[in-house]
Specification:
six-stranded antiparallel beta barrel, single chain, Elongation Factor Tu (Ef-tu), domain 3, alpha+beta, six-stranded mixed beta sheet
Length: 386
């Protein structure tokens, strides 16, 4: 239940240069305790115990304010060609009403962002972005691409409704229509006169949906409505779970990959099509990288020792015979697997399954093994087939 004893967002804010979510005050009432900054916006990162948040997600459902997933809107006669120019994934068969996980690469093949693309019309797209300035990149490209496109950031603020009970809650809130969505599909919906887009996507590796509010002024009303409808069905206020996303080997931009990484070392070969006729930024560079091979790979690790407390706030070195052979990018203790699990970037010659090393954490040295990823539900059956 929401608390009557909360402050205002002024208690957390440190100026107008960081934007406030339309759900911010509602999340405070429902127990948000700490925030971080993502895409120049505040995002709730703490509703209490992160382990309880994990169990709420995997056993019931959580509602997360992810309005920091800003939308870069691309329209105009050349929008489809321009979106393909930005992405190394072949989008020629993408249908209206479909979402695609894509990579945006620069001229050197580095990953600028890994957004979810939503195709709203033949020449109308949203890029639902991770934490980097895609709007500026897109505007810069458009200014020099010789294509007729318009680049904007619309008034759109997503929520994530995730967990095994999310479909029942969605049905109670919006009727049967959206519950029939297939994985990575979306549809329009009108709620109380307010336009929404509802997609079967999310950052949890669980059954889930994203609700894109298209009128920010209605943010608090939408949050309170979903909690009122959903609480009797098992809905909890929450935040994106580091535990669950690492179990699912879901990469976090700026943590597990950035502009210095290319798709091949991240194991994202399936998202690169060098044989399509369409040109895209970075195509020559990625062609060369594929031919030459990469010197490092993103891998999964299991770490020995007692449960990790929290997550790493720095990159821990991975050592072998006194040499640094990699670094841990994200690490956490999984209470379900009863293991310390991590994502790491490793020198290729030490990245084979079964390879052993030592991770120098902040507190101690821990033996580690390279293991297959994802750590749980490798076929994504929970998210895709439920």
């Amino acid at each position: 239940m929401p608390s009557d004893k909360v402050g205002t967002f002024r208690d957390f804010s440190f100026g107008t240069q960081v934007r406030k979510s339309p759900y911010a005050e509602a999340t405070l009432r429902w127990g948000a305790k700490r925030f971080s900054v993502y895409n120049h916006m505040y995002i709730p990162r703490d509703f209490g115990d992160p382990v309880q948040n994990f169990w709420n997600l995997v056993n019931e459902a959580i509602l997360c304010d992810v309005s920091v997933e800003r939308q870069v809107e691309i329209t105009g006669p050349d929008a489809a060609r321009f979106v393909q120019f930005m992405s190394c994934r072949d989008l020629s068969k993408c249908e209206v009403g479909q979402c695609k996980y894509v990579l945006l690469t620069d001229q050197d093949g580095g990953i600028i962002n890994d957004p979810v693309l939503l195709k709203l019309g033949a020449n109308h797209f949203w890029l639902s972005i991770a934490d980097s300035d895609v709007l500026l990149w897109a505007k810069g490209l458009a200014a020099n691409a010789g294509m007729d496109v318009q680049i904007n950031e619309p008034d759109v603020s997503p929520l994530q409704l995730q967990g095994p009970k999310s479909r029942d809650i969605l049905r109670a809130a919006f009727g049967d229509g959206p519950t029939g969505l297939k994985y990575f599909r979306f549809s329009d919906h009108i709620w109380d006169g307010i336009p929404l887009i509802i997609s079967r996507t999310g950052w949890s590796s669980e059954l889930g949906y994203e609700i894109y509010l298209r009128e920010g002024a209605a943010g608090e009303r939408l949050w309170e409505y979903l909690m009122e409808v959903g609480t009797p069905l098992g809905l909890h206020p929450g935040h994106t779970s580091n535990i669950r996303r690492i179990e699912g080997a879901m990469l976090s931009y700026q943590a597990d990959m950035n502009l210095q990484n290319n798709p091949f070392e991240m194991g994202m070969d399936r998202l690169v099509n060098l044989d399509m006729d369409a040109d895209f930024i970075g195509k020559p560079a990625l062609t060369r990288i594929k031919q030459e091979g990469v010197g490092r790979l993103s891998v999964g690790l299991e770490l020995d020792g007692p449960p990790l407390v929290g997550t790493n706030d720095e990159y821990w070195p991975v050592m072998l015979d006194g040499l640094i052979v990699g670094q841990v990018t994200s690490a956490v203790y999984s209470p379900r697997l009863e293991k310390n699990i991590a994502l790491a970037m490793m020198s290729r010659q030490f990245a084979d399954i079964g390879a052993r090393g030592v991770v120098e954490t902040t507190e101690r040295s821990r033996a580690c093994d390279v293991v297959p990823k994802p750590f749980y539900d490798p076929n994504k059956s929970l998210a895709a087939n439920t």
